[in-house]
Amino acid sequence: MGLFTGLLTLPLAPVRGTMWIAERLLEEAERELNDPESIEQQLLDAEARFERGEITAEEFERIEDELLRRLTAGGGF
Predict the structure, then answer these.
(1) Residues 32, 38 contacting (CB under 8 angstroms)
(2) Which of 13, 36, 46, 69 would bridge with 76, disulfide CB 3.0–4.6 Å?
């Protein structure tokens, strides 16, 4: 980037920085969302909640289906 271009785009620097941070946060959120270990832990947590009576069988099945779908879609299975 030349000096002239750098000076002209200088007012956009905060926007570019904010966008860079937002992109890194999105990448990390997606990585955590599709992490097999995280999904397996969520499944264990849902099972424990079901066993304690905190959620119904239907809620557990819905959670389990979603987590297993994410796990298989992410290549964890």
Answers:
(1) yes
(2) 36
